[in-house]
């Protein structure tokens, strides 16, 4: 949706909340449906039961691929830049991407995949990852992409939860100086996963892998087989609007990640609409999102959102700091990138390398910038604006979640007046409210509270896979008739929203969501650990760091060795992304008489704010606090 003025945005916003169904009807009509819907929306937040565009039939890949072929088949759909700058980049036009998706869809079918099957994808950031995702969608299989940094145990948990029957992976992958042994990790995971009957392995790093007879097949061999079978076409499976499109696991406040479920119709409408609206995307612009497809940002804003709008999306295999901290700027110059969408942690990290390296590159092609994942602090905002945008590019600070499917609160580029540190105003169709602890709405401006959404939007999660009750409890039971985001938020005098961070036990480390309970479970698996408590603390680059208080009376006499052992355990159980930054050994934890850990106190100690611990009189053993304070790292 394009806007020419802020006034116009405000009018459309008002209309969208007064007549939401009419608003979404109009938005949805710009997509290709095989059959239109009978009802725009049926909903209640109690169960919750949410259905958008019921009765409609579609396939999302026809919107992302087929519908662009006639007029824009030769336009680049995906530009891929490898990890190593000396390796050649690749460009796939819409026509080429369509053909490759069809081919791989046929590979999936040849390997027994059918509509409704769950397929786990564990791949490096290569175009074949996008192809695999789209091929699943084309045949109506449900993809569950697992980020390449998760451990064998995490993958096994996700495969078992979704009962996947196929895994798509690669021999290995590259990220910076690291070689990721993807197939070998999958082999370890599959020891626990009898449901998996086939593993399709792409050649990327050509590291040695063990291919198990009858189970493992090479991607390239399978493609050759379908080439000899004749037709490169694969008709898209007809899906109901509310059929499942994918599952993506995300951390919450319990020990077990949950599978957030998105459905075909609503998610398509929402990602396409929000992509075009927030970035005011114009045909022909080169759009570079630095996220990994293993996270929701990559799903919604590398694959589905941009492709449904016929955009050119640039995907990058590597990391911003290798071979040096000019890597992103080099890519911007090389491909004349117009829109750069990245994360605060990357901005802060690159900022720390100074501006000389930035000045080496021509960034004049940039017209719009974006940020996601955590609050973009003002210092980083200004650096991004001045050094990268040269003061002429709006920064869209997009607030949203795995569960929301797409942007919720975000400036509209070149339309919404910007305020550093603020995600700004809700996009048309989104109805945020702030509530106090009792769920009472906090009205007016210049207030803070817990951020909820009071009306459905098409991209919202429908359930958590295999456990609807958990979905209800996590998001819809805290406050009656509201979706609770888990975020604290301030609304200033102009009605602008500023996200202040999670109010639950979820950490946001480098824009990645990590549940403290999950990390505690992993630490507690270590043989010498009796108990642990994990909290976050402010970290200059990562936003939040992970601080673990650990009771380990019989540990090795060398504390550092025990620390390393614990880190190894966390890496094995969850993955390197969840490794604590600090581990403090303690003899006890501050607990109430009912045995509840008082995290508030631990958080203060981790933040270095030991002077203001508040009331400790309700603790079972207040003495433990002094000891922890003294040993703080
Ligand atoms: O706390 C908010 C933070 O990231 C959480 C969602 O994490 P995840 O589901 O992993 O999705 C990340 C990418 C959408 C939110 O609850 N968050 C996300 N974007 C912002 C943000 N916090 C502040 N400002 C943002 N722009």
Q: What is CATH's topology name of the largest domain?
A: Rossmann fold
Q: What is the percentage of strand-forming residues?
A: 15-25%
CATH architecture name of the largest domain? 3-Layer(aba) Sandwich
Average the pLDDT over all residues and give the rounded result: 96
CATH level 4 superfamily of the largest domain: ANL, N-terminal domain
Account of the 3D structure:
The protein has 633 residues and is α/β, with parallel strands linked by helices. It folds into two domains: 6-432, ANL, N-terminal domain (Rossmann fold), CATH 3.40.50.12780; 509-630, ANL, C-terminal domain (GMP Synthetase, Chain A, domain 3, 2-Layer Sandwich), CATH 3.30.300. Helix content is 33%, strand content 23%. It is built from 19 helices and 30 strands. Strands 12-11-8-6-7-14-15-23 form an eight-stranded mixed β-sheet, with helices on both faces. A hairpin with a 2-residue loop joins strand 26 and strand 27. Helix 3 packs antiparallel against helix 4 (94-110) and helix 12 (344-351) crosses helix 14 (378-388). The longest helix is centred in the N-terminal third of the chain and has 17 residues, at 94-110. It is globular, with a radius of gyration of 24 Å. It starts with 5 loop residues before the first helix and ends with a helix. The model has no long low-confidence stretch (mean pLDDT 96). The structure holds adenosine-5'-monophosphate-propyl ester (PRX). Adenosine-5'-monophosphate-propyl ester binds at residues 250, 296-297, 372-375, 397-402, 423, 485-487, 499, 502, 508, 513. Adenosine-5'-monophosphate-propyl ester is lined by residues 250, 296-297, 372-375, 397-402, 423, 485-487, 499, 502, 508, 513.
């Amino acid at each position: 949706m394009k806007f020419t003025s802020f006034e116009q945005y405000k009018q459309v916003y008002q209309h969208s909340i007064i007549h939401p169904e009419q608003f979404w009807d109009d938005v949805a009509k710009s997509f290709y449906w095989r059959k239109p819907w009978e009802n725009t929306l049926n909903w209640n937040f109690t169960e919750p039961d949410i259905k958008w565009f019921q009765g409609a039939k579609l396939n999302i890949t026809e919107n992302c691929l087929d519908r662009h072929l006639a007029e824009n088949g030769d336009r680049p759909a995906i530009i891929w830049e490898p990890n190593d700058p000396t390796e050649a980049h690749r460009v796939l036009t819409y026509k080429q991407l369509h053909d490759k998706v069809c081919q791989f869809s046929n590979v999936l079918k040849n390997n027994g995949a059918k509509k409704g099957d769950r397929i786990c994808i564990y791949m490096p950031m290569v175009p074949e990852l996008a192809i695999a995702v789209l091929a699943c969608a084309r045949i109506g299989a449900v993809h569950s992409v697992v980020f390449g940094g998760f451990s064998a145990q995490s993958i096994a948990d996700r495969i078992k939860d979704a009962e996947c029957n196929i895994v798509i992976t690669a021999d290995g992958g590259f990220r910076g100086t690291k070689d990721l042994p993807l197939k070998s990790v999958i082999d370890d995971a599959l020891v626990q996963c009898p449901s998996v009957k086939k593993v399709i392995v792409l050649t990327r790093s050509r590291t040695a892998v063990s291919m198990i007879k009858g189970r493992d097949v090479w991607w390239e061999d399978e493609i050759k087989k379908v080439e000899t079978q004749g037709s490169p076409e694969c008709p898209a499976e007809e899906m109901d609007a509310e059929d499942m499109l994918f599952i993506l696991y995300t951390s919450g406040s319990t020990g077990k990640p949950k599978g957030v479920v998105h459905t075909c119709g609503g998610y398509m409408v929402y990602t396409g609409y929000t992509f075009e609206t927030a970035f005011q995307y114009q045909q022909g612009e080169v759009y570079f999102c630095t996220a990994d497809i293993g996270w929701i940002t990559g799903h919604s804003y590398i694959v589905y959102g941009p492709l449904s709008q016929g955009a050119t999306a640039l995907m990058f295999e590597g990391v911003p700091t290798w071979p040096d901290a000019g890597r992103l700027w080099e890519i911007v110059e090389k491909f004349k990138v117009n829109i750069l969408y990245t994360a605060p942690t990357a901005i802060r990290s690159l900022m720390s390398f100074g501006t000389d390296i930035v000045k080496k590159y021509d960034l004049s092609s940039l017209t719009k910038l974006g940020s996601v994942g955590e609050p973009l602090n003002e210092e980083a905002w200004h650096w991004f604006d001045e050094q990268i945008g040269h003061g002429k590019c709006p920064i869209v600070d997009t607030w949203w979640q795995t569960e929301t499917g797409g942007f919720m609160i975000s400036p509209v580029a070149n339309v919404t007046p910007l305020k550093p540190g603020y995600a700004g105003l809700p996009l048309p169709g989104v109805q945020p409210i702030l509530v106090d602890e009792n769920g009472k709405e906090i009205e007016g401006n210049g207030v803070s509270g817990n951020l909820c959404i009071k009306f459905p939007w098409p991209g919202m999660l429908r359930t958590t896979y295999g456990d609807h009750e958990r979905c209800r409890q996590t998001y819809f039971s805290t406050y009656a008739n509201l979706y609770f985001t888990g975020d604290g938020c301030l609304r200033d005098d102009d009605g602008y929203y500023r996200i202040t961070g999670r109010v639950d036990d979820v950490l946001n480390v480098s824009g990645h969501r990590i549940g403290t309970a999950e990390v505690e479970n992993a630490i507690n698996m270590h043989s010498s650990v009796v108990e642990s408590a994990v909290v976050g603390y402010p970290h200059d680059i990562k936003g939040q760091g992970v601080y673990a208080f650990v009771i380990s009376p019989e540990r090795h006499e060398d504390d550092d060795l025990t620390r390393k052992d614990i880190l190894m355990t966390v890496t094995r159980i969850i993955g390197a992304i969840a490794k604590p930054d600090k581990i403090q050994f303690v003899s006890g934890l501050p607990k109430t008489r009912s045995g509840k850990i008082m995290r508030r106190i631990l958080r203060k100690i981790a933040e270095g704010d030991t002077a203001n611990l508040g009331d400790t009189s309700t603790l079972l053993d207040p003495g433990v606090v002094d000891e922890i304070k003294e040993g703080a790292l």
